[in-house]
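okkk here we go again. third time trying to get the zinc ion bound version out, last two times i messed up the smiles copy paste (missing a bracket lol). double checked this time i swear
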Amino acid sequence: MTSPSSTPPTLIRHAQVVDAATGSLREDADVLVAGGLIQEVGRGLRSSLPGLVELDAHGRSLFPGLIDAHVHVTAVRRDLRESAALPKSYVAAAAGAQLRTMAGRGFTTVRDAGGADWGLAQAAADGLLGPASRLVFGGRALSQTGGHGDLRGREGGADPCCSIGQVCDGPDEVRRAVRQRIASGAGHIKLMLGGGLSSELDRLDGDQFAEDEVRLAVDEADAGGIYVTGHAYTPESISRAVRLGVACIEHGNLLDARTAALMAAQGVFLVPTLVTYEDIADYVSSGDAPRHYAEKLAIVRESGVRAIELAVEAGVPVAFGTDLLGPGHARQLDEFTLRRDVQSPLSLLQSATTTGARLLRHEGRLGVIRPGARADLIVSDLDPTTEYLDGLRKQPYVVMAGGVFTDSDAGRVLGA
Ligand SMILES: [Zn+2]
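finally!!
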């Protein structure tokens, strides 16, 4: 097992430490890590901790590990119905592998937007998966019958084994489902509040769940100390969600200026996921995708960039998300490329660190390099305040997730 307690303390010397919140750099700084946490940041640090490993960053940038705020680690295939029909054991193993790979890529925390449960999060936290992303889960996303998370087909019946959604109708079922998630330690409640690409039975422009169901989910989540995030594309679905107390909008591709202003006024987060539409476009071109993917893709693909532009202009807190499915996960860093025209490198770094941490309600513990924060960090030649993070692919870099290097070769890369 690779839990922080079984990992030796580490002192990384001579780094250029990045403060993502301000974009300022601290030259020639050392970072001491022990017990999975950052213990100290400063010049010329000394430590007498037993077993201390010292590494020299040679003036490279050291910045917080990234947060992908919209993943589906249990979506093992691009076709969600196919994925949902796989045995649980296979899906769990594949999701574990996904969490390891994501951490190695630099995403040391991921927020699951439908499918992952507490068992997977606990396995990651216990070190059973090796160095892996920390998983913030919300369980299966709640969906009305015929909604975006209903993968049962036209005949209804029981949810398939590994659906990313759970069908519930009416206040009582919604209430029970929300309370059960809170009891399991969920970080958020995901509601499907409008149609989506992967669902065959719904329309993109239709609202889902009645107002009393949404309001009740918001109240119950609030009582349990967590929040509701909603899948929505149209200005109508988004503004209805904001009015009913939903704290975050997933995708939001058809956002208009008026709705962006409303989100900003309420402090509602946006998690755009541009890269998934590019991946689905390729899936459609391959001829393997179910037909409804193509029809709905055409409605949302082009508008996603403009939605981010409007959100940034209005002052909406914009996080970083990808929403990739199955083999598409390999493109996780491409989201940085797709946002180049509408966000600066620093703005994107903040989306993937400080803003994500605020959304996850882990401010001060994630997305920062400071004592007491989780030891999630990246050491790279790239300066993330002036260069886009998709550039990470061009040279070797080192990732530490919860005090553990994701690659046993980290010492060699750092030239220890
Ligand atoms: Zn999603």
